[in-house]
Amino acid sequence: MKPRWEGEEEDARAAARAAAERSAFLAHQEGEPIVLGNEFAEVRVCRVETRNGSRLLIESPKSGQWIALCPLEVEALTWQNPATFSRMIGKPFGPLIEAETETDRDTGREEES
Question: Which of 17, 67, 73, 113 has the fewest CB atoms within 10 Å of its CB?
């Protein structure tokens, strides 16, 4: 018997969507990827073209996580100080700031998404 968990189907759908999105990005890769690594981490970086322009696709082969950043998001990295990155490293495999929920502006109630 295979172990099951609450939310397994939603997790599977989200993983399938993410895999399809990553494949679509990689189908429009420009040039060769760059691999950077040290004793703590390794990342693969490549430029991909989208209908909204170029993005930087950053992947962690070890964890399987990835993100595609637009030029403004990449520039925003230059606005940060070392403390920001220290805090990010201190909370691995998760966002520094949790996603905001949609709130009804008139009543202040949270709405289901």
Answer: 113
Q: How far is CA 104 from CA 6, 98, 99, 100, 111, in A?
A: 28, 19, 16, 12, 6
Using CA atoms in the order 85, 89, 94, 95, what is the torsion angle rounded to 10 degrees?
-10
> From the CB of residue 59, how many other CB atoms can be counted at a distance below 10 Å?
21
Structure tokens at 15: 């993983």
pLDDT by 10s per residue, the chain, length 113:
788 888 888 888 988 998 999 989 999 999 999 999 999 999 999 999 999 999 999 999 999 999 999 999 999 999 999 999 999 999 888 888 888 765 544 445 544 44
> Where are any strands of DSSP class E within the chain?
29-37, 42-50, 53-59, 66-69
- CA 83: distance to chain centroid? 20
